[in-house]
Amino acid sequence: MWLRLYLTTEALGALFDVDKSTVSRNGRRVLAVLHQISQEELVWPDPPRRGQGKDLAQALEAHPDLFAILDATEQPVQRPQEPERQRRFYSGKKKRHTIKTGLIVNEVGVIRGVTAPTPGSVHDIRHFRESGLLRHIPRETCVVGDSAFTGLQQDLPWHNLAIAHKARRNHPLTLGQKVMNQELAQLRILVEHVFAAMKHFRILAERFRHTLELHHQAFLCIAALVNRRTRQRLAVQKA
Fold it and tell me: pTM, whole model, 2 decimals?
């Protein structure tokens, strides 16, 4: 209920007839347990062993990760008191103080990686570079991102990349680049759908009132829950 509705400890205490300190103390314990048991939901599949011959359909079913789609989202936070922290958390894009978290999603909407939160002023490509998740992307998987990830080839020289083109001064996009951006947008919309599903949990949609560590735990738990729902939906579609 806390993740879904983001109620205060006073409201949760009133609902369950306990003191708000009990809600705070035990809520963190439960969240830590959920975080621990959900970690297996957010990993890349193991590569096939040698000698395991498969046709194309079997290979795609066992290892569907043809693409790794990267994107980040920002969530408002309370304005920090210290001037230095105000500058760090101020997002020029959102024009407010935010924290940023990124996802890596495959082509069927399964989450493969979640970055740790950073202040909103951190650029998307730097955010992913510092997260350490890029090195876990399988070499045979094509990496997809918007124009904020221009320059990612320096970090992934052995991967195939599909990064949206960005218009520059005196260098407008060509017709071919516009068509490619449209095609990539249709693929990148998958990660936007995942973000939308996660933000049904109000704790990720409203202004966050707690620490970055608690935000990371909550984000990971919700990502695992959304992943399970996605797997169930895919299983039903397959049946």
Answer: 0.86
